[in-house]
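User: Second chain of the day. Same drill as before.
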Amino acid sequence: MMTKTFSEIAGPFVLLLIFLFLSNHNLSPSFAWELSKHDSPDSSSYSSTQYSNQLSSPGGCLNQHLAKDNATLPNVLLIGVQKAGTSALSNWLKEVGGVCMSKVQPGEPSYYEKEAHYFDALPGEGHEYDFDHAKIYARRFAHCCADKIQLDEVSIMSNVLAMDATPETMLFPKRVRSTFDSVDPTGELAKRAKFIIILREPVSRELSWYNHCAHECRNQLQTKPICLSYPSQAWNSEMNRIRTFSEYMESVTLTNVHFVAEPDPTEQLCYREMNRGLYADILREWINLFDRQQILVLSQEELVSDEGSFLNHVNSFLGLNKYISDFHLKQVNIKDDGHKVKAILCSDQEKLDQIFDPLNEDLYRLLEENSGPPMEQRPFQKFVKRNCTVEDG
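Assistant: Same format as last time:
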């Protein structure tokens, strides 16, 4: 009678573990994205596992043992910026990285899975950044722990990651800090959160946002006489038509390029009207409230020029498996109805350069003087300006 070897006995069990791991991370063989080989992450004194442990030492699923009532706040916030690739990255982290997202509540649009829109509440919505409201926010992520697969009381996922990828969050660091401190007044929970921000050349971002607003405005005009909500930024109410980019620049961009400090959310709740391109000023607020090592600053220029390196920064920061960098990002939010503005007038470019060039230099100095986590690109890849078009006549 032949006796089975250890490998023959253990083999099926190992295969079961591998299958459960792949299923839990949504890594099926039929996954639709194409594979490509990228360079491995830059070497540093920190491995991704060591860095993950540094910011997320044991505290229960989503560190809920530190929180009042075991509240489950997300431990990853993708805070911006709009029109810089946040949708593509969040989809990639969900589908490939196995990162858990917000649970959509009844009556909410489907994009609330990516964007919970908790920190950008408008005045008059009965919203306060205290513990009672934080508990409501935390319930959106409770399923991330309830769905965690366990085998023999040992978690297959060594570190559950739950993410809110609302890009408007970048304007409200005080609201974020107030929320975390309301759940854990010791501040330890706030120290374990991780923040990711993708920065895009400000003029290109401004044009992309204009095109987005104009596209949504045209959609609204099919059933309404005017544009409402944020698409109204592209609406010329005097001429009863969609603004040109030049009109948008004069009416929207150039009127919001002055820094406005965020008010204390415990004393005053008002929406912060300010251009998203004031990157250095906004980052200083985050650095004042959270350790710089908790904030991964990414360049959209690198996303375009070297996607593999870009994704390796994210992998290492979150402690994900290195091999998932082999999956491409999937391009999303591609909207072109034939009216998309591809290049702005050179005269408009000059006006915007006068505003943003000094701000960009301030950003480069800030990042050079305040080193980020070890896997962050250094030096920060400087922005590349788009081509402009010369006016007729």
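Residues 239 and 364 are 41 Å apart (CA to CA).

User: Great, on to the next one.
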